[in-house]
Amino acid sequence: MRSEIELPNGNPDTRLGTLLPAEGENGVFAESWYPVCLSSEVQAGQIRGETFLDGKIIIFRGEDGVARAMSAYCPHVGADLSVGAVVGNNVQCAFHLWEYDGSGTCVKTFIGDPAPKKARLFKFPTQECYGIIWVFNGEKPHWNIPEFEVPDDKITFRSYRFPDYFNCDPWVFAANTPDMQHFKAVHGAQFAIDDPHANVDWDDWGFRYKIIAAHQKGIPIEWTLGIRGTSLFWQEGPYGDFWIGGLVGFGLPVVGKHEVFAVLALENVEDESLVEERFETAEALMHRTVGEDSDILNTIHYRPGTLTKGDTTLSRYLKFLRAYPRSHASGPFIK
Ligand code: FES
Ligand SMILES: [Fe+2]
Questions:
Q1: Quick check: 15 pLDDT over 70?
Q2: N or C: lower Cβ tally within 10 Å for the chain?
Q3: CATH classification of 152-326 is 3.90.380.10, yes or no?
C-alpha cells in the first residue's frame, strides 16, 4: 500500500535572498559596544577572563575602581593574564611576573630587565553602565550607550546575565526590533495605531520609534524602542500603570553566537514592596519575551527573501547592517 506521488506544482523561481554579513566573516566584526560581564563579577583587585569575538580578553579593576578591558595574552611568551593578579592599578602576569599598567604598557619585569617597548596589550574602549561592563570593537566608539529618559537618581535598576548563549549573531536579535510583524505574531501585541514606519527616527547609528499597543492580557503599553549599532536594544515607557526601562546588550563571546545581558529599571517609589512586585512583573515580562523569541533565534538561517510593506523598517535596518563598519583591530592580540 503506497500513497500517490506528490508532484511539484511549479517550483518557485525566487530563492531565499542573499545572506547578510556574518560576524567573523573575512575576519571582521561589527564596530559596536558589546557587553562582556556584569560589574558585580569584577570587584576592585579582581581580574577575569572572557572569550570575546574570536579570542580572549581580560577585564580587571584596579584600586582606582576603574574597569579596564585588554587582550588576554601576555606579549612576553603568551601566558593568559586572567590567571594573573591585579597589583595596584596594574595587571601582573602569573608566569614571569611582568606588569602592565592601565594603558596596557609593560612597566616592569620581575628580574629587572628593562620592559621592551613593544610589550603592550591591546586596550579596548571600555565603559561601565547600568551594572554591565561594555567593550567596543574598534579604536573609537561611534555611538554612546544610551541613557534612560528617567534620570539615574530617580531609578532603581537590576542587571542580568542570561545563562545560555543564543545560536545566532547579535544583529539577528537586534533585527527583531525593526521587525514590526514579529511584535504582533510572536509577542501578541496589538498595535493601537498604524505601523509607525514613517515615524521611525533614524540616525547614522540606529533608530527609535514609539509603539502604542495592547500587550498580552490587554495591558496597555506605550513604549519607545530603539537599536544602537548591531548589539544594543533599549526601550522605555509605561507598562500598564508603571514605567519600565529595559536595555539589552547582545555580547559576542564566540563566533556564531551571542550572549544576552539585560538591565531593567523602574522609577523609585516609597513603598519597597511595590518596587519588588514591579521587578517581578518586569522580570517575568523580560523572560517571557526572550523565551518567545528563543527557538526562532536559535534555529534561524537569516536570509531576507520576500519582504512586504509590513517590513519597511526591517528592510531599512537590513540595509543599515550591510553597510555597517566592521573591523578587527584586536585580532592579532586576542587569539
Ligand atoms: S608570559 Fe607573561 S611574563 Fe612571561
Ligand atoms: Fe522578539
A1: no
A2: N
A3: yes
